[in-house]
């Protein structure tokens, strides 16, 4: 049994220890505080459809944009050893493009939505490529390179729609941010599952995961082994751009409008934290997408828990910061190294005791 556990942890579960423990602690805390916290019920929404409701649904639904962005952020972090702090601003640009194309059409149909989403993807990936070029070709530190779009991105989103905050009224758009008639699960949750499956298939049938980790661990060694590190870094930003377009489109669907100033405001910090809580090194290298997804749900569960405890919205960020600092410190290399030394010392003591007993 012990050997099986060791094999599991060597296989990658050890990297998920911190986020899984965080989830478990939040679940236990909420069950003690309020046993009905995770109850799920069926109810009719405003459109008369039967849907799932409850705190658990709010958690997995509310974290959808963050989970999608965390997946893309994980690749950038792993390949470049830094983070993109402009994802919130790029989401505003992608959302503005999405709405711009929708408003240009006389009627919003399924084809119109697909075209609008494709346009949002293209625009977001172009802006992400700009960040990628600065990082991969000009060797600028990612956080500094992406500071440009972080500063001016929302202004660009403002210009796209001429400074207006246009609304988009359509059952299709409502379904993207809410529920598809006949399906009780929120659509954003289904979108997260679809994006996660795409990542899983890409890692299964291509060498993106291996190449990204190789470049992140040692770019020079990867280059000597025939891996184009510049292309891999640029590709990670392009993939993040696609994730940004998905998150921006979901946000527009939720609100039914685009507000360049508030859409996914400050989400870049939560995305970085989701990657860190997920057990991924912020210095690049080995990564686990599933860890970042769990990290996103940890952040959202913590937020919902604080609101359920009647904590004011102005104080929520402070409490979140305290908890997240604790989680990040516990998962830091220094603490992990000390814990490993302690475990080795305990093993040595047990070995000595067993040897003495045998004598």
Order of strands, widest sheet:
1-2
Low-pLDDT stretches are 1-12
Helix and strand element order: HHEEHHHHHHHHHHHHHHH
The first-to-last residue Cα distance is 28 Å
Q: Write the CATH fold name.
A: ABC transporter involved in vitamin B12 uptake, BtuC
Largest sheet: 2 strands, antiparallel
Strand content: under 5%
Overall CATH architecture: Orthogonal Bundle
Count the E strands. 2
Task: Please give the share of residues in helix.
Answer: over 70%
Tally of helical runs: 17
Look at the structure and give the CATH class: Mainly Alpha
Class per helix and strand makeup: mainly alpha
Instruction: Please state the overall shape, judged from the principal axes of the Cα atoms.
Output: globular
Number of domains: 1
CA-based gyration radius:
22 Å
Explain briefly what this protein structure is.
This protein is mainly alpha-helical. It has 17 helices and 2 strands. It has a two-stranded antiparallel sheet.
Task: Summarize the helices and strands and which ones pair or pack.
Elements: H1 2-10, H2 17-33, E1 41-44, E2 50-53, H3 55-62, H4 64-80, H5 87-104, H6 110-136, H7 142-145, H8 147-160, H9 171-177, H10 187-205, H11 208-217, H12 219-224, H13 229-255, H14 267-277, H15 289-308, H16 313-330, H17 333-358
Antiparallel strand pairs: 1-2
Helix pairs in contact: 2-15, 3-15, 4-10, 4-11, 4-13, 4-14, 4-15, 5-6, 5-8, 5-13, 6-13, 9-13, 11-13, 14-15, 15-16
